Amino acid sequence: MHYFDVHQHYNLMEYRGRKVEIPSGLKQSEYFEKELVKTCKEHESMVAVNGLGVCDNEMIPMDMNDEVERFFKNNEEYIVGIAYVDLDWDTPKIIDSFYKRGFKGIKVIWTKKPYDSKEYYEFYKRCEYFQFPILFHTGIEGIPFGNWKDGAISFNMNPAWLEAVAFDFPKLNIIGAHLGYGYYPVACALAKSIKIGFTDAVSEKDGIEKRGNLFFDISGSDILLREVPEGGYIKRDIPVSQVIWGSDEPLTRYEEIVNIWKDHFSKINLSKEEQDKIFYKNACDIFNIKY
Asked: What is the CATH T-level fold of the domain 81-286, as seen in this structure?
């Protein structure tokens, strides 16, 4: 089986109290890159690494787009570059720049207004033009990283705000992170209803997939790893075609997280083909990568 992790932050090694011992003589970023490529080779994986990285030794988020660019250009077989974009501070033309630099999509989080604010539409328009998927954080944030940015609250990242974006930009592939963490039924209902809407209203000759353009990844914390399986949402409430796998956890947990989902997929009787879609093929389709 192949894997495509759509949600990994650059330099993420120590997280949620989990300490990682960095070998003497290596910077944390060097060790991160070495271990991630090693993991990709061992598991036949690709990983979308986004530029919202973390500082060495401190869980402080920062723009690491330059580091991600160097990383994916040196490891194109395994690494897909996702640029971190601040919709409030950056200008829409930055999307053009990231396209020219070889990035394959953007990461968005901590907005001062809801995601469907018309002030953000020029960013989305450019992403749609360049066929850039957007990975939106969705759901409760609940940690103080965003406190420095007035108005960047969880309310603005409710998955419900992606409904208008999905319909106003029908050729834009949208990924909501964490299955809308805390808003799981909302995320599921949106993905399912938008898929149905596209199937009913959009023809293939329009160049738009009938499966819709709103997807959710199942990355996240131990809470999500417990709540989503317990809730039984996958396939029952959200179609397999709209679910993609992501980790958003340190590399030390990679195999553990894969096994958690494999066990759950087995319990809900997903076929090998359905598991392949979630773990790999859906993401390949979203990022226009052949499998």
From this structure: TIM Barrel (3.20.20)
